[in-house]
Amino acid sequence: MAAVFRAVFGYCFLVLMVRTAGRRPGKQITPFEFVFIFFIGGLTLTPMVGNDRSLSNALIIIITIAVTHFVIAWLRQCSAAFGRLVDGTPLVLLKKGEWQIETMRRMRIQDDDVMAMARDNGLERLDQIDYAILERNGEISIIEASKES
Amino acid sequence: MASYPKTKPVEDTVPKVNDEVAVGSDLEFQRKWWRFTRVLWMVFAAIVVADLLGCFGRGFLANAHARTNDGVMDVKYERIERFSTPSILRIEFGPTAIRDGKIQLWISDSFIKSLGNQRVVPQPEASVVGQDGILYTFSATTVPAAVEFELEPTAPGIFDLQMQVPGSEKLKLHLFVMP
Asked: What's the CA gap between B127 and B86, in Å, rounded?
């Protein structure tokens, strides 16, 4: 029974930690962020498993995490507010030639992070960007400025 | 059985930025979240400091020391233990604890049941179960005479531990086991 509680707690705690520590996974992830993600994942595993190395314990923990994940995904679908809590919302980083300083500072994102994504989209300069948006999954979407403007 | 429509027309449901790009951003919510995380970081910092001080075991505040008024026993232990994590409880005996080349020590049941005594150094000559505890008998000649117990708590919670050299004062300890 304790394994179920440990698994639910471990999963929810990890979600909170990753949400709190910032939104830069995926393409924007840097080596030191890799260390953070893998380190906390590994450290959570140890107390969840404890000294019970049985197959039953492993299966119970995996199933519990799957159920917890399903419940959170379902709640996210049912409630927009819960979805915002778990995933956050997209955030505008650059709008029509103006950096959104507050968002960038709070999300610990710099102009070269945006430029890296712009290069990935085949752009060469920041003035070719109309909007840069930090998506919920941590990716930065670039909307190119229209050529006429 | 209720049937749900398989399709629905696309509506302009995602809020726009500058009335042109559908982003769905909610800066007000995000500001609340930032305020929450600021508090959370303070809590995290407090947890780190508390741990460095030993509030969660294994540190300055966790180490404890108790002795009987008659000087028979002097106990060094950790008042804050951690679940399933080994620690040492050391008992030093005064000269009056040694009788006929032996030291007898009674320890309450919680020592085995909850605090999970794993090992005793040196090995007792005898250990007798009874009177809600265990009575150990050790060979001893002169002071300093000390016994060490390796504990590995089996459950989190607050536990009372009592110990006594028969015929002398009883020592009561309270230990908190962190989950």
From this structure: 22
